[in-house]
Amino acid sequence: MTLHVSHLGEQGSPVVLLHGLFGQGKNWTTIAKALADNHRVTMVDLPQHGRSAWSSRFDFREAAEQVAAVWPDDEPVTLVGHSLGGKVSMILALLHPERVAKLCVADIAPAAYSTSREFVGYTNALKALDLESLERRQDADDALLEAVPNPTVRSFLLQNLRREGDSWRWQVNLDVIERDLDVISGWPDDLLAGVPPYEGPVLWIAGERSDYVREEYAPEMTRLFPLNRKVTIKNAGHWVHSEQPEVFTEVLRRFLK
Predict the structure, then answer these.
(1) How far apart, in Å, are the Cα atoms of 77 and each of 12, 32, 166, 225, 257?
(2) 238 classed as catalytic
(3) Which among 37, 77, 80, 140 is least surrounded, fewest beta carbons within 10 Å?
(4) pLDDT tens, 182-195?
(5) Which of 13, 52, 83, 210 is catalytic?
């Protein structure tokens, strides 16, 4: 299954950017533009998201293999992934280390999370929205106000609402995400059993206000990625790259050098 990608930059080493749950490749546009002078940047829509095709399930191996097909076999890339994209990035690097020159993992760990309740709420709220009654995007924003009171999160989720002619549709596969949320929030230990550590350089970025990167996750991160260096960005939560884009970009730019 071919994934939708966007490219910026015509010279320098290749960088591939993966978004998180409910996101799209274009979420990385600001950072991609900042890197494009010195790098060839690819923004990817993950399976079930954006303009990429939908399938009947979410599977980490399938997602990693589909992402790996985005660039040539003989050119290792710097792979950057946030949240769900960070998990896919880690799994890809472990399964195909020869494809990944460097790895940047943004605000996620190789761990199973029990924080999927908020995402269940988001999925339910989006599915409950009557798309046929919408006349303007603002109508959707108003309808979600009670279920998703945070305006930043609401705006982020509504990026998935696309108008085609006189009708509206979701660009994210809500049915699959709702059903497979335990898989998405988990970590595929069975898939990685016996797989050796990734020996390349790893930048592990955390948001200061986020609880997705905890000290208890550090031993497993170091076991799987022994050459990791952790950086915590102040005044940022889980969406660290969008909350502090300039700081994130500078940290990433130094890692790329």
Answers:
(1) 11, 14, 41, 17, 13
(2) yes
(3) 37
(4) 999 999 999 999 99
(5) 83
Q: In this predicted model, what pLDDT tens digit does every residue of 66-79 receive, in sequence order?
A: 999 999 999 999 99
Alpha-carbon span 165 to 159, nearest angstrom: 17
84-95 and 60-68 helices cross at what angle (nearest 10)?
Answer: 70
Look up residue 24 and give its amino acid: Q
Identity of the amino acid at 193: A
**Successive 10-residue mean pLDDT values, the chain, 257 residues:** 93 97 96 97 97 94 97 96 98 98 98 80 92 92 92 90 91 94 95 97 97 96 98 95 95 96
Q: Do residues 109 and 220 lie in contact, with contact meaning Cβ atoms separated by under 8 Å?
A: yes
Choose among 18, 14, 4: nearest CA to 35: 14
> Is residue 179 a contact partner of residue 119, using CB atoms and an 8 Å limit?
no
Tokens of 48: 């079930």
The DSSP call for residue 109 is -
Q: Residue 115, by phi and psi: left (phi above 0), alpha (psi -120 to 50) or beta?
A: alpha
Kindly state the DSSP code that residue 134 receives in the 8-state scheme: -
Pick the catalytic residue from 185, 238, 241, 242: 238
Element (H or E) spanning 102, and its range? strand 100-106
User: Tokens at residue 184, please?
Assistant: 């998405």
Q: Is 175 a catalytic residue?
A: yes
Q: Are 182 and 78 in contact (CB under 8 A)?
A: no
Of the candidates 139, 141, 175, 180, the residue annotated as catalytic is: 175
Neighbouring residues of 149: CB distance < 8 A, sequence distance ≥ 6: none
CA-closest candidate to residue 103, choices 59, 72, 67, 53: 67
